[in-house]
Design goal:
By secondary structure, this protein is an alpha+beta fold. The protein is 38% helix and 28% strand. It starts with a strand and ends with a strand.
Length: 162
């Protein structure tokens, strides 16, 4: 019998992120506390750019956006925001959505699987994802449960379970 496998990935649904951004724009346009402070949020290439006239207001824009991400099912572990910085007469925050698992994180996850997972389970790093394989499907499901229980620095999904 061939080995069963699954992939560990860290991906953000771009469409859901865009929907969250559009909802945040609508709320910022309609909320009274954002009137007259030049509050904006929009895509800037692959990054998300938030602007407002004061540091408190730009942090409030960030808060609105983060709440919309959570409502759309996108983990805040996938969103990296910078510090507010002045730019002319306004304050800005740049944020970006993380896709893929970097080498350091992949090694950390692989180590957890090796040390705490079932002995029959093997993992290998393939670019920005991990392939996990075992003869036993139950061992793979136990590995998934183990990783869900861990507090990893990134949001992980499990795909291609065969």
């Amino acid at each position: 019998m061939a080995d069963s496998t699954f992939d560990i990935v860290s991906k953000v649904d771009k469409q859901e992120a865009n929907n969250a951004l559009m909802q945040a724009q609508k709320e910022i346009e309609s909320r009274y506390d954002f009137k007259g402070v030049g509050a904006e949020i929009d895509w800037s290439g692959e990054k998300i750019l938030m602007k407002a006239s004061s540091e408190e207001r730009v942090k409030a824009v960030l808060d609105v956006f983060q709440s919309k991400l959570v409502k759309r099912g996108i983990s805040l572990k996938s969103f990296v925001d910078g510090k507010p910085y002045p730019s002319g007469k306004e304050y800005r925050i740049e944020g970006e959505l993380k896709n893929g698992i970097d080498q350091e994180q992949a090694k950390k996850i692989s180590k957890i699987i090796r040390e705490e997972g079932p002995k029959s389970v093997k993992s290998q790093i393939q670019g920005d994802e991990l392939r996990v394989q075992s003869k036993s499907r139950d061992d793979l499901q136990a590995t998934m449960a183990l990783l869900k229980g861990k507090d990893l620095d990134i949001d992980v999904q499990f795909t291609n379970f065969r």
